[in-house]
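Table 4 source record.
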Amino acid sequence: MVERQVVRTPGGGLGSTPRGPYPVAVKFIDGIDRLNGIVGRTAAWSVLLMALIGAGNAVASYFEPLAGRRLASVALDELQWYLFSILFLLAAPWALRENAHVRVDVMYGRLGVRGKAWTDALGGALLLLPFCVYGLVVSYPAAAESLRIGEVSPDPGGLSRWPIKAVLPIAFALLALQGVANTLRAASQLRRGEVS
């Protein structure tokens, strides 16, 4: 009998990591799941920071006529959209892990467990992973060049641009890792006949 570790899957997909004769693969899958969980939960805190920064800048803008000068900060405006980018990019692998990503559930929802496993395995291998590789190939040179030249915002008082550009290849790498983990999980379930 195969021991299973059940993980939360709000989207109704396959949600367990098979236990058995492949402990290295299981540790790899579990490690990726843990990593993306930590990164995603940490990125989720950016929502609170965005709200505080937005409220602070709104209040500062309200008092600008009284002060006779600009009180809102360009750097804080940019930080707010940096945080939004971080949330969107670094929470995507977590959403994939939790099976909370957007997918066409019209067909997927009608499939049986085996059909879902095939869809997850083939979709990950043929669609998600090539997309992530393309994203890495395109984003890494731009991020590296931005870091090399120390790119900063063209707006006075703006922030450095290279840190936010560096998040893009990191996000694609984490998404690719989660895609590999999900694909291995689905393929393992198909191989072991754990789906009927």
